[in-house]
TrEMBL record:
Keyword Cell division attributed: no
InterPro entries membership: PRTase-like, PRTase_dom
GO molecular function, one term: glycosyltransferase activity
Protein name according to UniProt: Phosphoribosyltransferase
Ranges of residues in domain Phosphoribosyltransferase: 8-168
Record keywords, A-Z: Glycosyltransferase, Transferase
UniProt xrefs under CDD domains: PRTases_typeI (cd06223)
High-level lineage: Bacteria, Bacillati, Actinomycetota, Actinomycetes, Kitasatosporales
Amino acid sequence: MRFADRIQAGRDLAAALREMQRTEDLPDPLVLALPRGGVPVAAEVARALHAPLDVLVARKIGLPGRPEYGVGAIAGEDPPVYDATALEMLGLTEDRLASTVARERAEMHRRQDLYRGNRPEPRVAGRSVIVVDDGLATGVTARAALRYIRRQQPARLVLAVPVGSPQAVTSLGHEADTVVCLHQPVVFEAVGLWYEDFPQISDEEVTEALHMTTTH
């Protein structure tokens, strides 16, 4: 199973969440996208659920020299969330990653300012919060995001993705109340392999998507 693009993936995911909305209690829903790739997916979900859309900027902490290999992540001003097993296997300490964390936190702040401007963060307490990304590989970024939201006491916390590794989906079941994942290929490798068209998403596309919705 491959998705044509993030728009199709978002519509398929929205259909599953509409069914959840119909059969279960999802009070006062709020859709939070993990930018950049999660934004086109989340926009379709927000549209289908008639829910506001906003972003939750979380940043992966990459392996020094191999930034694409995530060993941790940050969200908000919370301390980093690390994959302890990966750190041990790689012989890394948190201290050695301090400069990477500082760099990623600065980039996180830049994106928050760019995407949100002067708007405050949306109210989370007592709401059904649906965190959306375009896929889960290790799941470490989603883990940081979910923990950040959980501290704000949502009524229900849902993680929704079109595709994810079975290991990541299982591990994140302890962080969210519900994980919705349409496709869990046994041999996963990378998120982009499960899309026919998987372009980079620009900052401009993120801000345009947010301007097309009403956040409250």
